[in-house]
Amino acid sequence: xxxxxxxxxxxxxxxxxxxxxxxxxxxxxxxxxxxxxxxxxxxxxxxxxxxxxxxxxxxxxxxxxxxxxxxxxxxxxxxxxxxxxxxxxxxxxxxxxxxxxxxxxxxxxxxxxxxxxxxxxxxxxxxxxxxxxxxxxxxxxxxxxxxxxxxxxxxxxxxxxxxxxxxxxxxxxxxxxxxxxxxxxxxxxxxxxxxxxxxxxxxxxxxxxxxxxxxxxxxxxxxxxx
Length: 226
Fold this sequence. Notes:
With 226 residues, the chain is α/β, with parallel strands linked by helices. The protein folds into 2 domains: 143 residues, Response regulator (Rossmann fold, 3-Layer(aba) Sandwich), CATH 3.40.50; 69 residues, Orthogonal Bundle (Arc Repressor Mutant, subunit A), CATH 1.10.10.10. The chain contains 10 helices and 6 strands. The protein has a 6-stranded parallel beta sheet with strand order 2-1-3-4-5-6, sandwiched between helices. Helix 7 packs across helix 9 and helix 7 crosses helix 10. The mean pLDDT is 87.
């Protein structure tokens, strides 16, 4: 059912009945907010968005089926949709990596709050309004964690490489293919491939496409050498 003009219609996606009910009560207590739909997993959330067309999705970061990062994945899916529904993610994790992943496609109409904000109805309601109108909200505790993480000296992933792996990466940076690297370093091709796979793993590039991770590894090497 459509709300009054100016009413913000909220789809709640949360697999914990206790938390879901708490959020529902907060939303229903606000005159300009309305519960459009309540879902307990990723599939029903996606179906609900297409069916009720909410003004904002308020979602747990982890839900069935995998209990991984369904909330963030859904936000990324919505970015690819012309309607791009605003998303406010609730999470028990204050690690900045999750918030950064949510915002990597842009901060517009995206928010990341810790679940304890459910105990602060005014703050949660204000965040819903801000994100629904296209703004961005990040929990202050997450911001503090991000500042602390950035202020700590960072150890380059290149430091994890063995001397032999650095030699192989240096040859890659010169544009040599595996056969040429094997000849230059007096190694077997299988040995070169083993070292390259180890390099990709240590640099966090294991899931990238072959050409992309080779280029990225070289760029990381060159920036680390400069």
